[in-house]
Design brief:
Structural class: mainly beta
Number of helices: 4
CATH topology of the largest domain: Immunoglobulin-like
Distance between the termini: 73 Å
CATH superfamily of the largest domain: Immunoglobulins
CATH architecture of the largest domain: Sandwich
Strand order of the largest sheet: 4-5-1-7-8
Largest sheet: 5 strands, mixed
CATH class of the largest domain: Mainly Beta
Radius of gyration: 32 Å
Helix content: 10-25%
Strand content: 25-35%
Amino acid sequence: MRKKRYLAVGFTAVLTAVALLLTALCCMRADADSFGSTVYLRTDKTKTPYIYFWIDGQTGFPGWPGSAMTADGDNIYSYDLPCDIGDLTGVIFNSDKNGTKMTGDVKNITGNLYDLASGTWETYPVKFESYGTDIKSVYVGSRVKIYANATSPYGSVKYRFSVNNSVVSDYSDTNSVIWEPKKAEKTTLLFEAKDSSGNVNSCEMTVDVKDSVGAVDPIFLSAVPENGKIVKAGEKVSILINGTGGQVNNKILFYKTEVIAPDGSAVNTPYYKTDNTAEFTPELKGDYTIKMYIQNNTVENTTAYAEYTYTCNDGKEPTPKPIETDSDVTSKPSPVESDSDVTSKPVPIETADGDYDGDGKVELEDAYKLQDDVTSHKKFTKDEISRADMNNDGKLTLKDASLIMRAAKG
């Protein structure tokens, strides 16, 4: 790996020490954009390209045709400037020491690598593979993970994160930071990455932070553990979902958590409940997908959704599922519904105690299960209606679930 050099860097033997000093002094401008001090060129048209550069009104730069660039491999050539790239007025890339031009005057410098084929600038070698936030809708009180993933062929990458030009996490090996917005406003997030050779790159995005006061719709704020948590096989994971909103009717929020193992199998039986916690114990090695739902208590059942991933590194290897073929599937006739199985018309019921599941007890589980079945548009049997139609309107709705909940609580 070629060692990169920054600030004062040697030119060719033809430059005198005086010329080098003048060039360094001429390049010192504090108000310029920073792209680093190494210029890269991507081209397959020559073995030894030359670079000529200048700053308007200043002298002391290498004479025409400039200086030879160094081959870095993969048709990439580089040259170390004595100053920042953003200080330059322009450059010209030549194909040889005779000054045969490959480009005209390139003055709009917006990066550190010039691609000859497309005639555009880009940032190299630090490349962002991904960056952003782990939740899309951000509210005051949200616990948001800001993350970035970048790579470089010239050493390990460190990250820095800023919110509205204020650094919240300085350069470190950690590629994420938790941000808790305190104010409803449009917020600028800056993601910066720097490799061990000093090459830098940055990206930014704008997040619209909203206020949740008086919100009718359910709002997902956060979950504990944080997204991307490493978990251990055989150790119970307790999930706490933090939600808000639902400021309507009795202001109850319902929570449902669906846990999917690395092999695609369901780990739990998901249903809505007022308890905002869930537990599971990982056994398989790989990623566990955690789907979280929050609903308000309205006829429309507006739902907030978030998906987290927890990784188990020390469990059993999941067994691949066999691929289903036509020979594996046997066509069976669909069962015919009878009047005794389902009712399509409201049936007036005189009394109902709330024992929806018919186990002889009226408890919160009856309310949770009914709420889940209502939102999934289940067709209810006459017996289910007779047991759970608390307001005697001949049908089962979320209102009945709320009344059963009150009955269960005494």
